[in-house]
Amino acid sequence: MALRSVSRMLNNRAINQVCKRAYSDEMSFTFAAGNRVFYDAKSVKQVDVPSFSGAFGILPKHVPTIAVLKPGVVSIFENDGSVKKVFVSSGTVTINEDSSVQVLAEEAAPVENLDLAAARDALNKAQSQLNSASSEKAKAEAAIAVEVAEAIVKAAE
């Protein structure tokens, strides 16, 4: 019954597109930032990403999606069982019908390269700037800096 009500909402073209979708058992993963390419079409098991719509995991056969990344850690679960963690400041994730996934980050760094003391320093400075901001623009910029710094501190701990 639920399927009938859903199918009435979709036109025949949309239904045919969903039924024709060919998913793969493998997931090709590309991950790059302005400063570095982390993965270039490598097959991985799973990727977990921080998103403004909520953190989510990506597996092969994931529904096609486009999402905006928020500051946080992208976890890459490799086929050999190892897990790589990379901090991203922001960016996008695209999941395609062929199970390929692209993460494009504004800035990214392996979690093991983060300096906790420097991150705490940056957070303190950003919070001071937020408290002393007088214009709406300065407040918005400082709020973004606080959000990123808080995420870096959390990732580095």
TrEMBL record:
Q: Which residue numbers delimit the F1F0-ATP synthase delta subunit C-terminal domain?
A: 114-155
Q: Which UniProt keywords apply?
A: Acetylation, ATP synthesis, CF(1), Coiled coil, Hydrogen ion transport, Ion transport, Membrane, Mitochondrion, Mitochondrion inner membrane, Transit peptide, Transport
Tell me where on the tree of life, at the top rank, the source sits.
Eukaryota
Coiled-coil parts of chain: 116-143
Query: Where's it mainly located?
Result: mitochondrion
Q: Which residues form the ATP synthase F1 complex delta/epsilon subunit N-terminal domain?
A: 29-108
GO annotations of cellular component type: mitochondrial inner membrane; proton-transporting ATP synthase complex
Under Pfam families, the record lists: ATP-synt_DE_N, ATPD_C_metazoa
> InterPro entries given for it?
ATP_F1_dsu/esu_C_sf (IPR036794), ATP_synth_F1_dsu/esu (IPR001469), ATP_synth_F1_dsu/esu_N (IPR020546), ATPD_C_metazoa (IPR048937), ATPsynth_dsu/esu_N (IPR036771)
Q: Where in or outside the cell?
A: Mitochondrion inner membrane
Gene3D superfamilies noted in UniProt: ATP synthase delta/epsilon subunit, C-terminal domain (1.20.5.440), F0F1 ATP synthase delta/epsilon subunit, N-terminal (2.60.15.10)
Which Gene Ontology terms describe the biological processes this protein takes part in? Answer: ATP biosynthetic process; proton transmembrane transport
Family in the record: Belongs to the ATPase epsilon chain family.
What functional role does this protein have?
Answer: Subunit delta, of the mitochondrial membrane ATP synthase complex (F(1)F(0) ATP synthase or Complex V) that produces ATP from ADP in the presence of a proton gradient across the membrane which is generated by electron transport complexes of the respiratory chain. ATP synthase complex consist of a soluble F(1) head domain - the catalytic core - and a membrane F(1) domain - the membrane proton channel. These two domains are linked by a central stalk rotating inside the F(1) region and a stationary peripheral stalk.
Q: How does it assemble?
A: Component of the ATP synthase complex composed at least of ATP5F1A/subunit alpha, ATP5F1B/subunit beta, ATP5MC1/subunit c (homooctomer), MT-ATP6/subunit a, MT-ATP8/subunit 8, ATP5ME/subunit e, ATP5MF/subunit f, ATP5MG/subunit g, ATP5MK/subunit k, ATP5MJ/subunit j, ATP5F1C/subunit gamma, ATP5F1D/subunit delta, ATP5F1E/subunit epsilon, ATP5PF/subunit F6, ATP5PB/subunit b, ATP5PD/subunit d, ATP5PO/subunit OSCP.
**PANTHER family to which the protein is assigned, alphabetical:** ATP SYNTHASE DELTA/EPSILON CHAIN (PTHR13822), ATP SYNTHASE SUBUNIT DELTA, MITOCHONDRIAL (PTHR13822:SF7)
HAMAP family, sorted: ATP_synth_epsil_bac (MF_00530)
Descriptive protein name: ATP synthase F(1) complex subunit delta, mitochondrial
